[in-house]
């Protein structure tokens, strides 16, 4: 019996990356690395750490205002006439344009890079869009269902961000190109200018008094319709409405362009919230033709037990590699503990638990699929959670990371840290090779554009771990910030791959050297 063998890892990791039980109508089918990751980033990800104190102030404005503005400017390159441009992170290459002036731009991109949110299936464009969703909600705005799948541009788009000195006809045409009609233009500008304001150093032609370093669009930092009411009551101090320079009163020209009809309708707070939610959702989903976004996600669905019964017992069950239900060595284990999920502001209305399992799987009989049973211990029938009837299928059991043999190494002399991976390969040393390609979201760039780092490492045979029950072991070092990796191994002429292995799902033993 190969007790602590590598396949324990396959189960715990596989569970962590996707097994789920949610009392929702979600169509999620495991495995789906992209949707799993989106779910995690939306409801538990790093971006919400910027808003632990709510609508967080920064540099006279709020982080939310900076993040929403960059999303709009990035998306402004869209042209409905030929389907080009949209929210594609091309802003990373457009920061030297006067239309993108403002320290909030580079600062926001630096926020996104430091949050290390990007992944092989989730780029900077998706991060900018997610940032807008979280930013709006952090300041009391509506929840905007989120889709992923944007494709990052590798160069700048056209310079089509509206500028305050342009006339109404130019603005109307630019918004039409971006996919918004004249009424939607009025509302979208009001929604965008609900928070934040204008900085004197960026726009000295708008704020002529150097003493006025920053002028807010309205008197509340919140995502609310004060921008509208103060405009209609003539109490506004928005410099794009009442500033000394008539040429740059772009909000005044836009807001009044239909005789204030749209602004009057936005006086109703519910209409404001609903309209802004819909328009900002359309804004962040504006992408170049040919880019397909995922389904919209509005509630957590992945690897959670939602609204758990306090007395529930959860059991993990599996079938061996032949598909037999129960190998002689056993095929089920009860959960070894559970943690309450610390949801973020986007999902604070949910309660859910994540259960851990520690299964020992025989290396020879192995595993082909697993599933769960939830017993609420209240006399009701146990609930089977089996991925829509298919079970959670282990696509291949010939190559995987061995959790129990891998280590996180701290070099005490230099305080350097790295992960020493041990990869198990079914085969023998003479006919096997293995390599990994790692994805490290932590950019080595210090200013935008920020690029993640891909590295391919050929693994070497691990002399410290001798062959065990048909498996041999390879090893290689990777950065501790690596969030995903692909493993490829050749054994006896066959190639096995595991793609998008989630390093967040494993927990290596720490060792000091
Ligand atoms: C004709 C269209 C628009 C014009 C001319 C315009 C112009 C401006 C200007 C001049 C600023 C000041 C920036 C600075 O001082 O650095 C600003 C800020 C801002 N804009 Fe717009 N804008 C327009 C549309 C929009 C839209 C559609 C949105 C989002 C939906 C938006 C969101 C913001 C936000 C959130 C800020 C505040 C940024 C901060 O406080 O850091 N804008 N806008």
UniProtKB/TrEMBL annotation:
GO terms classed as biological process: cellular response to oxidative stress; hydrogen peroxide catabolic process; response to reactive oxygen species
Alphabetical UniProt keywords: Heme, Iron, Metal-binding, Oxidoreductase, Peroxidase
Keyword Metal-binding: yes
Family in the record: Belongs to the peroxidase family. Cytochrome c peroxidase subfamily.
Lineage: Eukaryota, Fungi, Dikarya, Basidiomycota, Agaricomycotina
Organism encoding this protein: Rhodocollybia butyracea
E.C. code: 1.11.1.-
Domain Plant heme peroxidase family profile: from-to ranges: 58-271
Protein name: Peroxidase
InterPro entries named among the record's database cross-references: Ccp1-like (IPR044831), Haem_peroxidase (IPR002016), Haem_peroxidase_sf (IPR010255), Peroxidase_I (IPR002207)
Catalytic EC class: oxidoreductase
Annotated GO MF terms: heme binding; metal ion binding; peroxidase activity
General function of this protein: Destroys radicals which are normally produced within the cells and which are toxic to biological systems.
SUPFAM superfamilies: Heme-dependent peroxidases
Keyword check for Iron: yes
Signal peptide start and end residues: none
